[in-house]
Automatic annotation (TrEMBL):
Annotated source species: Paenibacillus thermoaerophilus
Transmembrane intervals: none
Pfam families per record: Glycos_transf_2
Domain Glycosyltransferase 2-like: 5-136
Tagged with keyword Glycosyltransferase: yes
Superkingdom of origin organism: Bacteria
Coiled-coil parts of chain: none
Recorded GO MF terms: glycosyltransferase activity
Protein name in UniProt: Glycosyltransferase
Length: 373
């Protein structure tokens, strides 16, 4: 059985740290906490779980802090978490089994990372991360902001174990400051840094400037296709907010330069045509989304609902607009199979059943009524 060091960097995390550690402390063999300057009870809470608590002078460099935490690990594998991450019970059990059965020939275990959730607790957005890595490989973190673990070689093991991110607080101002002071001011705004700085601008509502940087990034070399695909979707988001629907659609279609179609892009393209009233074309894209499988080693952010209920909801709307109520009803039923308690879908069900019953009583006569969806 492998042994695991959990390595975390923290600062003023008293609100969430116990929640995180409660979900994983009994699954790991060592907990290393690196504090970067807490002024609250973070270190006091950490001390309830481990005596391996270290200080690191904050230098606006997340990679440096994470690399320091990794240097303190002593077990055969290293796991990393943020303080607002946790493992739910089903994932705790999967992790427990993984620890007992993992072949030590594997150098990195890739896990799901769930980033957003619906009201029922189902994940709606997520990605994958190299979450558990062999210490002897000496993998390093790169980049002071939006850091990533550089796992460019070795044997990867893909699992469906999920770490769930329950974010507390907004770090946009901090991220923007670090970018401007360490990246922009030092003339390092290129490649991956260019992409992530554009993301910060877009998230801050600075769509014009963000769109220019996305275009600049997309015109450069393709080191990591996932980032280029994400840049296409973010550029489309900018054009949507700038009221430029044609350029929005062009940006989404550009993503097909980097990989085969994916369900989330197909849904977004479908939205473009649906918004213009081109329902038959929108139907084509939504139905295409339903035929696609999630790529196995996709490491970028995915809109998970585009592989489950979302295309069915939009197909219900589009078919209803075209007067094809039976097809609209069937897709609403499919959506309900994922979200059985959803109030809007249940309302659609009642309206469609009434409309179909009325249509049957009238012998199929149509009367220019507003579609029920």
């Amino acid at each position: 059985m492998i042994t695991v060091s959990l390595c975390m960097i923290v600062r003023n995390e008293e609100e969430v740290l116990a929640r995180c550690l409660d979900s994983v402390a009994d699954l790991v063999d060592e907990i290393v906490i690196v504090d970067t300057g807490s002024t609250d009870k973070t270190k006091e809470i950490a001390a309830r779980y481990t005596d391996r608590i270290f200080d690191f002078e904050w230098i606006d460099d997340f990679a440096a802090a994470r690399n320091y935490s990794f240097s303190l690990a002593t077990q055969s594998y290293i796991m990393w978490l943020d303080a607002d991450d946790l493992l739910f019970e089903k994932d705790r059990e999967k992790f427990r089994q993984l620890k007992q059965t993992l072949d030590p020939r594997y150098d990195s275990v890739v896990m799901e990372y769930h980033l957003a959730f619906d009201d029922a607790g189902n994940p709606t957005a997520g990605s994958r991360r190299n979450r558990l890595v062999k210490r002897s490989k000496g993998y390093r973190w790169v980049s002071p902001i939006h850091e990533y673990l550089d796992v460019s070689d070795g044997n990867l093991y893909l699992t469906d174990i999920a770490v769930s991110h329950k974010r507390v607080g907004d770090h946009s101002a901090r991220n923007m400051r670090i970018f401007k002071e360490k990246i922009v001011a030092e003339g390092k705004l290129e490649g991956r840094n260019l992409f992530y700085y554009a993301n910060e601008l877009a998230d801050a509502g600075q769509y014009e400037e963000a769109s220019e940087l996305y275009q600049r990034y997309l015109s450069g070399p393709v080191d990591y296709p996932e980032d280029h695909m994400m840049a296409c979707s973010k550029l489309a988001e900018c054009y949507h907010n700038l009221g430029q629907p044609v350029r929005k659609l062009e940006s989404l279609l550009m993503a097909f330069k980097y990989d085969k179609p994916r369900a989330d892009f197909c849904c977004w393209i479908g939205y473009c045509f649906e918004a213009e009233g081109h329902y038959a074309t929108a139907i084509y894209w939504y139905e295409t989304a339903l035929k696609l499988e999630k790529p196995l080693f996709h490491m970028g952010v995915q809109n998970l609902v585009c592989w489950t209920w979302m295309p069915h909801v939009q197909l219900c709307i589009c078919y209803a607009k075209l007067g094809e109520l039976q097809k609209a009803y069937e897709h609403n039923e499919q959506a309900l199979s994922y979200l059985p308690e959803d109030a809007n879908l249940l309302s659609n069900k009642r309206k469609l059943e009434a409309a179909l019953a009325g249509k049957a009583q009238a012998g199929g006569a149509a009367g220019g009524e507003e579609p029920p969806c």
